TrEMBL record:
Keyword terms of this UniProt record: Flavoprotein, FMN, NADP, Oxidoreductase, RNA-binding, tRNA processing, tRNA-binding
Organism: Alteromonas aquimaris
Keyword NADP applies: yes
Catalytic activity: 5,6-dihydrouridine(20) in tRNA + NADP(+) = uridine(20) in tRNA + NADPH + H(+); 5,6-dihydrouridine(20a) in tRNA + NADP(+) = uridine(20a) in tRNA + NADPH + H(+); 5,6-dihydrouridine(20) in tRNA + NAD(+) = uridine(20) in tRNA + NADH + H(+); 5,6-dihydrouridine(20a) in tRNA + NAD(+) = uridine(20a) in tRNA + NADH + H(+)
Protein function: Catalyzes the synthesis of 5,6-dihydrouridine (D), a modified base found in the D-loop of most tRNAs, via the reduction of the C5-C6 double bond in target uridines. Specifically modifies U20 and U20a in tRNAs.
Annotated site residue numbers, Interacts with tRNA: N95, K181, R184, R300
Alphabetized InterPro entries for the sequence: Aldolase_TIM, DUS-like_FMN-bd, DUS_fam, DusA, tRNA_hU_synthase_CS
Protein name: tRNA-dihydrouridine(20/20a) synthase
Superkingdom of source: Bacteria
Residue positions of the active site: C98
Source species taxonomy: Bacteria, Pseudomonadati, Pseudomonadota, Gammaproteobacteria, Alteromonadales
Enzyme class: oxidoreductase
Cofactor: FMN
GO molecular function: tRNA-dihydrouridine20 synthase activity
Length: 337
């Protein structure tokens, strides 16, 4: 059954990050920002069609939330898009940016930039099957195909297939010789190339990803393009999301305190009933919540030492918070003396 497409404000989003942006992480991030668009980890069509796990599970509170798909067979991609829409996702995104060998061997990810016709065919078949937006996340180039003309040709062909929304990591990917981590750091950032793409395609919605660390940088980029996607900086310092609604979306939403977030996340932990669940499955996403604050190291240490093992602390977040508050109290008393 088709559903009406959601109206999503795409000015700010959090990148899909493999092994990180699972449903527990997304629930946590949603408490910090009501309007930020969240993405799942990449899920392959093979896992969805043939796997035994529930790879589409998410919390209703996560909306707006998008599923990122890895694949290149149009029929399989369309089938998985239907599955995503039926489960209630607000968007399906095609991964054309991941440079790992495993992804390349599966014929998806950044290697597809050399085959824009295949990406366009996927977009076309998916859009025939669903009403929710079908978007593409890509690089500015791969290997020696890194001139603007190569990039523009890829975008032109995929846009002709029906895609109107692109998220561009402003680095090219080297498919030979660099690891995925190195591909996030070594190829130089080229923001002007993404700006140039927007100027050449004003009718397309273009978001920028790569190396963005502050909301001030975000606002500067938004003078040239339509949206900004932030990844690892959000994960390392998640509380910066608490200012996104007010700063980027101009919302009057109340900024939650770190303590309020901890209380809600402890309640979330207490509600989990699935077999094999451990508080660490949630707490690992929260290590950076007190980044730059008094007690931040104590917070990280307590979670790491008491969230794992055979007998993890069931009140992990509450007890870690008490340690932080004591440290902050001690510093305050010291400064008064």
């Amino acid at each position: 059954m088709k559903k009406s497409p959601a109206i999503i404000d795409r000015r700010f989003s959090v990148a899909p990050m493999l092994d990180w942006t699972d449903r527990h992480c997304r629930y946590f991030l949603r408490l910090l920002s009501k309007h930020t668009l969240l993405y799942t980890e990449m899920v392959t069509t093979g896992a969805l069609i043939h796997g035994k796990g529930d790879y589409l599970a998410f919390n209703e509170e996560e909306h707006p939330v998008a599923l990122q798909l890895g694949g290149s067979d149009p029929a399989d991609m369309a089938r998985c898009a239907v599955m995503a829409q039926e489960r209630g996702y607000d968007e399906v995104n095609i991964n054309v940016g991941c440079p790992s060998d495993r992804v390349k061997n599966g014929r998806f990810g950044a290697c597809l930039m050399a085959n824009p016709d295949a990406v366009a065919a996927c977009v076309t078949e998916m859009q025939k099957s669903v009403d929710i937006p079908v978007t593409v996340k890509c690089r500015i180039g791969i290997d020696d195909m890194d001139e603007f003309a190569d990039f523009a040709r890829f975008i032109d062909i995929v846009a002709e297939g029906g895609c109107e929304i692109f998220i561009v990591h402003a680095r090219k990917a080297w498919l030979q010789g660099l690891s995925p981590k190195e591909n996030r750091e070594i190829p130089p950032l080229n923001y002007p190339r993404v700006y140039q793409l927007k100027l050449a395609h004003p009718h397309l919605h273009i978001s920028l990803n790569g190396g963005i660390k502050t909301l001030e940088q975000t606002q500067s980029h938004l003078e040239h393009i339509d949206g900004v996607m932030m990844g690892r900086e959000v994960y390392a310092n998640p509380y910066l999301l608490a200012e996104v609604d007010h700063t980027i979306f101009e919302s009057r939403a109340t900024v939650p305190s770190r303590e309020q977030i901890v209380v809600k996340m402890q309640e979330y932990i207490n509600r989990q009933t699935e077999a094999g669940f451990r508080p660490w499955h949630v707490a690992r996403h929260m290590l950076g919540l007190f980044q730059g604050q008094t007690g931040g190291k104590i917070w990280r240490r307590y979670l790491s030492q008491n969230g794992t093992g055979k007998t993890p602390d069931p009140d992990l977040l509450f007890n870690a918070l008490q340690q932080v508050k004591q440290a902050q109290h001690d510093v305050l008393e010291f400064n008064r003396s």
